[in-house]
Amino acid sequence: MRRAVWMVSLVAVLAVAIPAQAGWDDRSTGQKAGYTALAVVENVVPITSALAAPKCLEGYIVCKMSFAFVSVVAAGEQLFMSGGSDMNQFEAVLKRGWTGDWYLTGAHAAGDATANVLPDPGPPANVAPGSGSEPFNQ
To answer: Tell me, what DSSP letter sits at residue 7?
Structure first.
């Protein structure tokens, strides 16, 4: 009985969500509810989060927390190895793990927004000429 209820609810969510081609703001309340329910599932159920964020096989929230934890470890290692002299790299590593989307919304599930698990840390900061840190140019 539980399996039947689960399958019926899944089919209902997909039936509401699949035919929609409008933007998120133009969707009906039923479609928004269906996509929001799908986003809740993608946030917590393993493997389903790969529908919105291919880098995440576990639930999206656990995936984002693991990226944040790894960024803290990597930033600490980088800070230790540089002796504290390269704070720009330290901040960039932390920013990459801790910024971005922490949960999926209905717009992510609908495909109207892209989940940003690991955002780009941005362009490198200005470095002093002759410091040996400037990019290689030909």
So the answer is: H
Token look-up 């793990």 returns 97
Asked whether residue 34 is assigned to any structural domain, the reply reads yes
The closest alpha carbon to 110, from 59, 8, 26, 36, belongs to 36
- Residue-wise pLDDT for 33-68, tens only, equals 998 999 999 999 888 888 888 888 888 899 899 999
Count CB neighbours of 99 within 10 A.
Answer: 16
CA distance 34 to 31: 5
Number of domains in the chain: 1
> What's the CA gap between 8 and 18, in Å, rounded?
15
Q: At what angle do helices 87-98 and 60-82 cross, to 10 degrees?
A: 170
Q: Is the pTM of this model over 0.90?
A: no
Instruction: Indicate whether 132 belongs to any domain.
Output: no
36 token code pair: 């929001």
Q: How many angstroms separate the first and last alpha carbons of the chain?
A: 68
